[in-house]
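In response to reviewer comment 3 from the previous cycle, which asked for concrete evidence that the modeling workflow produces usable outputs, we include below a single protein chain processed end to end. The sequence was submitted unchanged, and the resulting structure tokens are shown without manual editing.
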Amino acid sequence: MANSRSAEKRIRVNRAKRADNIAQKSALKTTIKRYLQSLEGDRAMAEENLKKAYKALDKAAAKGLIHKNAAARAKSRLTKKLAN
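The workflow returned the following structure tokens.
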């Protein structure tokens, strides 16, 4: 329980930021899933979705949502799947 007005505000701000982070992570996962599903179909569509996944991963890393090395690792693994 917060003891001051500023502590109450921090609680409100943190809740809002947490909700935003959860939404952004969910959008990132959805983008990656779309790419993985498109691998089974058209190759051109898969390449387009890979670009979108790259962009989403880079944005997430830039915002601190995920670590930059985690983004690089994910990009590497996604590219490998396209090559196979």
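The domain at 5-83 is CATH 1.20.58.110 (Methane Monooxygenase Hydroxylase; Chain G, domain 1). We consider this sufficient to address the reviewer's concern, and the full set will be provided in the supplementary archive.
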